Amino acid sequence: MATQSTIRSIKKPQPISMGTTIKLPPQNIEAEQSLLGALLIDKDAVVEVAEILKPHHFYKTEQHGNIFNAVVELFEKREPIDLVTVTEKLKQNGVLDRVGGSAYLAELVNMVPTSAHVLSYARIIAEHALRRTLISSSTKFVEMAYDERSAINEIIEECEQSIFALSQAHTKRDFIQLKDALAQSFDRLDEIQKSAGKLRGIPTGFKDLDNKLAGLQDSNLIIFAARPGMGKTSFALNIAQHVAVNAGVPVGIFSLEMSQEELVDRLLVAQADIDAWKLKTGRLDDKDFDRLSHAMGQLAEAPLFIDDTPGASLSEIRTKARRLQAEHGLKLIVVDYL
């Protein structure tokens, strides 16, 4: 039978230097040990944590990460999971001695009486792993900021992408039971029924298109395709203008070719309903000017944002869109063109 000295002999986490302060990286060794013990005494416990944890999430990756990896490998092959099979798998992987041998595995088994809290252990481990990743990323960002050879825009973009990726990983969606989805659908359909004849989504300003789409819906990806000179830009601008001005919904326009001035002129012409040729040639009469002034006031109040960076990359558009969403609650993005 293994003794408590087995665990005490394991190398303790080494402190790291953070500025002038010495701190241990976020970790919970007891949670790691308890989780592994739970997996060894309950072959079904791994089902609850396999989607949450990966071997690299363990602070003691070489030790606990390898043990967890062995458990997952057995689980994926539908093989029994217990002290004997995990020991054999670690031996096959050539890491049994590295993890502390069979004596350490036996010690883990004796640490927990039940697997009831295995999910809580997993969440603790995952959260500490995320904190360590944040610290590591922040250190990298500091080094990049000190390196004057790095372009500041590239640094900012990489920082935003890294943080966004961490956020996405932290907020992964899980399965939803059909009965819960049905309850949500019933509420949604009931609301539609009460507003019979009204669009479910945001009106585009084009009746035929709205009849086809039932308005613009959340998460829709809509592509307008046509040959050059067929009016794709004007069509997209008209929709963006209608959504922002009439519905008051925040819209971001990314124009990779047309300048801000050209876009604004088109928006003014459409909103004021005046002749574009008169605007371009300075032939507006007093009535046109009155309509133009009124249109400017309407557009000025609209949550419409324009970016005319020539040849902007997809990552640049994504970064700017995320920032716009965070600051203004962006709901619609128009990219001219793909």
Automatic annotation (TrEMBL):
It holds the Pfam family DnaB_C. Residues 195-338 form the SF4 helicase domain. One of its GO terms (biological process) is DNA replication, synthesis of primer. The keyword Lyase does not apply. GO terms for molecular function: 5'-3' DNA helicase activity; ATP binding; DNA binding; hydrolase activity. Belongs to the helicase family. DnaB subfamily. This is DNA 5'-3' helicase. The lineage of its organism: Bacteria, Candidatus Daviesiibacteriota.
